Prior knowledge:
- The structure is a single chain.
- With about 800 residues, the chain is α+β, with helices and mostly antiparallel strands.
- The protein has three domains: about 1-35 and about 505-650, Aldehyde oxidase/xanthine dehydrogenase, molybdopterin binding domain (Aldehyde Oxidoreductase, domain 4); about 40-140 and about 215-265 and about 275-305, Aldehyde Oxidoreductase, domain 3 (Alpha-Beta Complex); about 385-490 and about 655-800, Aldehyde Oxidoreductase, domain 4, CATH 3.30.365.
- The protein has 20 helices and 34 strands.
- The strands form ten sheets. It has a seven-stranded mixed sheet with strand order 3-7-1-16-13-14-15, with helices on both faces.
- Helix 16 packs across helix 17.
- The longest helix has 28 residues, at about 570-595.
- The radius of gyration is 28 Å and the shape is globular.
- The N and C termini lie far apart (about 80 Å).
- Bound molecules: ligand PCD and copper (I) ion.
- Copper (I) ion binds next to helix 11.
Amino acid sequence: MNDMTPPTREERVEKLKGLGCSRKRVEDVRFTHGKGNYVDDIKLPGMLHGDFVRSPYAHARVKSIDASAALALKGVVAVLTAKDLEPLNLHWMPTLAGDKQMVLADGKVLFQGQEVAFVLAEDRYIAADAAELVEVEYEELPVVTDPFKALEPDAVELREDLHGQDSGVHGKRRHHNHIFLWEAGHKEATEQAISSAEVVAEEMVYYHRTHPCPLETCGSVASMDKVNGKLTVYGTFQAPHVVRTVASLLSGIEEHNIRVVSPDIGGGFGNKVGVYPGYVCSIVASIVTGRPVKWVEDRMENLMATAFARDYWMKGRISATKDGRITGLSCHVTADHGAFDACADPTKFPAGFFHIMTGSYDIPVAHVGVDGVYTNKAPGGVAYRCSFRVTEAAYFIERMIEVLAIELGMDAAELRAKNFIRKEQFPYHSALGWEYDSGDYHTAWEKALKAVDYEGLRREQAERVEAFRRGETRKLLGIGLTHFTEIVGAGPVKNCDILGMGMFDSCEIRIHPTGSAIARLGTISQGQGHATTFAQILASEIGLSADSITIEEGDTDTAPYGLGTYGSRSTPVAGAATAMAGRKIRAKAQMIAAYLLEVHDGDLEWDVDRFVVKGAPERFKTMKEIAYAAYNQAIPGVEPGLEAVSYYDPPNMTYPFGAYVCVMEIDVDTGTHEIRQFYALDDCGTRINPMIIEGQVHGGLTEALAIAMGQEIAYDEIGNVKTGTLMDFFLPTAWETPNYTTDFTETPSPHHPIGAKGVGESPNVGGVPAFSNAVHDAFRAFGLRQVHMPHDQWRIWKTAHDLGLHG
Ligand code: PCD
Ligand SMILES: [Cu+]
C-alpha cells in the first residue's frame, strides 16, 4: 500500500537536491581516492620537460648567456633565450593591464627570479641540472624596491624599453618609473568637505605585498600535433577560453586549432588568472620540437615570480561632524606594481574596483587617485581572493572608520551603524559611481553584535585594561569589527573586459532522453565545488535531480565561451547563465507537455519537477517523461531534442556584504595572540549550498588570518625575496587556525535570476580588517592609531614596546 503512495511535494523537492540543499560535494570522491587529474598528472608520450634559469639579481644587465655546458649534458634538447623567441616576436608578451612583459630576459633583468633562459630536457631532473650549468654574465644595476623612492627625480630608470614615452594605456606618465594616475570621484567637492569639517582623521594605511600560494603551483603541458596542425595546452588556467584566444592571437594558429584544457586545479585564488612566461615557453618549445613539453614551477618559483597581490600604500583622510556623521573621504594610493604592470583588472579599471572604498557607508563625497609605480619586484597584482583590489578598499575604509572613531572618541560599532547605507536607500548610488544592488546592513550588524554580546565584551575589555594597569595581567583584549561591502560578478560587458574580451558567461545544457543531463559552463572550478552547486541551480530550474546532472567545465573544445572563474563571478554570471538556460529548457518542455496532455501551453503550470494542468492536479507530465518524448515522439511544430544555451551579460554586479567580529587576546610580553572567538555573518543573497558556503567562508577567513597575522612577500633593499619558501612565508595550519562561527542573513540580488551573489571572496575581504582591527583595538586604550600589517609576533611585540608597555 505504502509503495503506491505518490511522493509528497516536499519529498519531490528534497529529491531534487536543488537550491538551499547542503548537498555533499560530488567532486570529493575523486579527490579523496587520489584520482584527481592535475596538470602534473598529465604525461604524454615523448614529453619533454622545461625549467627556467632565473635571475639572482633584482636589477642587472645581461651581458652574455653561455649555454654550451648545459647543452653538452646528456638528455638536454635545447636552451631557449630571448634571442630565440625574438624572430617569433614572442620575447615579450602583452600583460592583462595593457603593459608588456619580457618572456625571457631581453638585455636586462628587473626582478629577482625573472626568467632568463628556458632549458628543455628529457626529464625534469636533467632540466634542473642543466639550468644550473647555463652561465649568465650579469652587470648589477642600482635597485629600487620602494615605490616612493622610485618616483624621486634621480631614481634609476627601470623600464628602458619605455624610455621617452610620456603616456601609457592608462594616460600620462609623469616620471620614468610612473605607470599611470587613475582617479575617480570629485576632488574639489571632497577637499571642500574635508577642509570645512568639524573632525578629520588622517592616516597612511599600508596593505603589504603577499601571495596566494595555492597548494598546486602553476604549470602547463603544451602539445603541438604537427600532422593535423592542432595545438593542445593543458594548464592551470582560471580562464581557459581567454588563454585560447590569446594563444591564437599571439601564435597566429587559428583558434579552432587550439584546444585549451584546465584539468583539476589545486587552488587558484587569483594566482592562475595571469599568463606566465612558462606557459609561453612550453607552447613555443612544443611548436619548435613537435613534442609535448611540460613546465611546472616549484614552490620557490611560485612565491618569487608569479602573481603577487596587494602592495598598496593608501593615504587617507576622512571627515565627519562632531557627532559622527561622515562628510567626506579621500584616498591617494601609491601602488607598487613591480617590474611590469601585469595586474589582473578589467581594462577600464587599472586599480580594479578600488573605488568601492566608501564601503558600507553613506558618504556624500569622495575622491581617489591611484599612482601605479614600477619597482624591482615581481609583476602580478592579482586578486588573491578579492575581486580586483576590493580587499585593499575594504581594509582601507575599515581602518579609517576605526581611526575616525578614535578621533571622535566614539565607539566604533556605533560609528558604523550611524553611517550605514539604510535599507530603503537601495539600489544605492555611491559617491564613486557604483550602484549597490541590495543590502540590509543594520539588520546584519545588530545580529552580529547581539551574537557576540558586544556590550559584554566592551565591559570585559575595560576591566582588562584596568587590571593591566594595576599589574594584574599582561594580556590585552581586542575586539575587531568589520562591516564590509563586496562587489563581485564582473560583468557588464559594457564596463568590464579582459584584453578586450567582454565579461559575460555561459552555460549549455543537453537533456538526455532518459531524463538526465550534462551542462557545460565557461567557468572553471579550482576547488569551489561547481560540479555540485551548478547542478543544484539546474535541478531547481528544470526539475531533474542534481544527482542526474553532470557539470563540465574547462575544456574549450566542449564548453561554451566564457571568461573564467575569479572575482567571485561564477555564481553571479555563469550561475545566472545556468538558470537562464534552464528556463529555456523549461519553456520548450512546456510546449512538449502541452502537446502530450492535449492542452494549451498556458493551461499548464510548473510544479517542482513537472508540468501540471491548472485545476487538474492528477494530469501532469514529469520532466523525465517530457525528456523522453522530446527525443522519441514526433511533435508538430517542435524540433526534436532538448538543449539550450545561454550567454549571460549581467546588468550589474552583485554586492554581497557581511559583519565580522574577531575577539583576540594579546600577550604584551611575547607578542603572541590567541583568537578567542571569530563570528562571521555573510549575506550572499540566495544561498545555493549552505555547506559549501560555510567551507568557502572557513577557507577565506583562514587566508585572511594568514595575511593579517604574518603572511608577506618581503624584499630586502637590494631586491632579494626574503620570504621565498614556506619556512618564511606564513601558511596557517590547523594549529594556528581558530574556530569560526558562521551565520547569515539573506538579501537577494534583485537583478540575478535566482537572487544569488558571490561569496568566495567575501571572507577574505572582511576577514583581514577584522583580524587587524582586533590587534589595533587591543592597544587603543594605550594610544595606538595605526600600525602596519602583517601583525606577526615580532611586530605585535614591537607595538607594545613602542607604546611603553614593557615598563
Ligand atoms: N550564494 C551563493 C554563492 C556561492 N555559492 C557557492 O560558493 C562557491 C563560490 O562561489 P563564488 O563566490 O561565485 O566564486 P567562484 O567564482 O565560484 O570562485 C571564485 C572564488 O573562489 C574562492 N574560493 C576558492 N575555493 C577553493 N576551494 N579554491 C580556490 O582556489 C578558491 N578561490 C577563491 C577565489 S580567489 Mo580570485 O581568483 O583571487 O579573484 S575569486 C575566488 C561556488 O561553489 C558557489 O556555487 C553558493 O552556494 N551560494
Ligand atoms: Cu582584489
